[in-house]
């Protein structure tokens, strides 16, 4: 299974380019699509899900053009868009039965599949509860379950953790990790930890452009031995930020503890620390491009 884009671009009207010149190859596994707000993630997901048409370039599924023949990918697609609506008066099981019927699954196949998906998304214990009683995280897991009803070869999930509390995010991540067998999963987010533990590969977008596409380890290796932590007086923080890229700061009684990227130690007492994906992400999007 291969999803491939070649010089893909999408211009909205005569104005903004949502994505430009994106060339990307995705095979089985989870691919995290990371980028700040407005970087083009939803635009790219929309094109891959065949609900948006590119202005330039091509996208293919196993070699077939998905713009010319959208049916090729639609028949193997599971899609969870950013704003996903559920029906509050239905129970989880009723909702999934309804969605399965709309997709033409017979009731026996649907029933077995729903049992399996409720287990996968950890919703078996609440299957008879109405959706109106669900938290945002539970609702997103129902969304994942409905996107998997037809056992899709391509699963596209747009910013599934927005608005969820940390515990719900962890549960949703583990549900997504369970879905990755034998399919291409594309998961967009602007929250690095959401993809750090689950994604095999990460593509980073900014301003509509693909900045990099690599494994988590490759990305971390690129900033290895360039990450330092140091404590500076509050008054010196802006000087530090002029010279080094400051990834994060923590206020302390003796000043500000800063996490910094640089080729050399930023202060005499700075300690080199192991790099993380967050450091690699910040270095990639902050680098001039
Ligand atoms: N329908 C539209 N009409 C005009 N411009 C649009 C439209 N949709 C998106 N854009 C613009 O295209 C660019 C990419 O937006 P997109 O929604 O794809 O980014 P994103 O990374 O998904 O952002 P977010 O995380 O905020 O959803 C932005 O500049 C956005 O303002």
From TrEMBL:
PROSITE patterns: ABC_TRANSPORTER_1, ABC_TRANSPORTER_2. Residues 3-232 form the ABC transporter domain. InterPro entries: AAA+_ATPase, ABC_transporter-like_ATP-bd, ABC_transporter-like_CS, P-loop_NTPase. SUPFAM superfamilies: P-loop containing nucleoside triphosphate hydrolases. Keywords: ATP-binding, Nucleotide-binding, Transport. One of its GO terms (molecular function) is ATP binding. The keyword Methyltransferase does not apply. Gene3D superfamilies: P-loop containing nucleotide triphosphate hydrolases. PANTHER family: ABC TRANSPORTER, ATP-BINDING PROTEIN. Belongs to the ABC transporter superfamily. This is ABC transporter ATP-binding protein. It comes from Halorientalis brevis.
